[in-house]
Write a structure and sequence with these properties.
Elements (H helix, E strand, L loop, with lengths): L2 H10 L1 H12 L2 H17 L7 H25 L7 E4 L15 E4 H9 L3 H11 L4 H8 L3 H20 L1
Antiparallel strand pairs: 1-2
Helix pairs in contact: 2-3, 2-4, 3-4, 5-8, 6-8, 7-8
């Protein structure tokens, strides 16, 4: 397939790819970025010989792969705070009927409290409060489980102190 012919056929798929991107992301802006990235990748990694059906399935596979890779990366890059951030800062006396209480704090309070932690401790706390399990944190940071548990306990107590003031 000639270069211009390949490009034209890829461009004719843009509508279908955009619909698929929107189905994956549920957001027009993110869908547009995903479509652009897919198109760029498809143009860069152009296969030698491809028919129309193969081109279509190949383009959709690229998009799915990019989305999956981006989703996985975003999971590890979650932000520590948004406008309001609920932090689990429980103690044994604060649990009601076995359900821990949660406090809601302003982003600036949480950010300054996190700023007082060292880099290693802050990363551990970010992952913990983002919902990762201790096993996932240990794997992500290549640390023994005991170190992760110790860091989480230390961070929770430091954040509890900083936010209770």
């Amino acid at each position: 397939m000639a270069s211009n012919d390949y490009r034209n056929k890829l461009m004719s798929l843009q509508g279908n790819l955009m619909n698929y991107a929107f189905m994956l992301t549920s957001n027009r802006e993110m869908a547009r970025k995903l479509l652009d990235c897919t198109t760029e990748t498809a143009l860069e990694q152009r296969p030698e010989a491809v028919d129309d059906a193969s081109l279509k399935s190949w383009a959709f596979s690229i998009m799915r792969s990019i989305f999956t890779a981006e989703f996985s990366r975003k999971k590890t890059e979650r932000r520590v705070c948004a406008d309001v951030y609920a932090v689990r800062l429980t103690t044994g006396t604060q649990a009601v009927a076995g359900v821990p209480l949660e406090g809601t704090y302003r982003c600036s309070d949480v950010t300054s409290a996190f700023g007082e932690l060292g880099d290693d401790y802050r990363r551990t706390a970010e992952l913990y409060f983002a919902g990762y399990t201790m096993v996932e944190i240990a794997s992500e940071m290549s640390l023994p489980m005991a170190v992760v548990k110790s860091r989480v306990a230390y961070c929770r107590s430091r954040l509890r102190e900083a936010l209770s003031a």
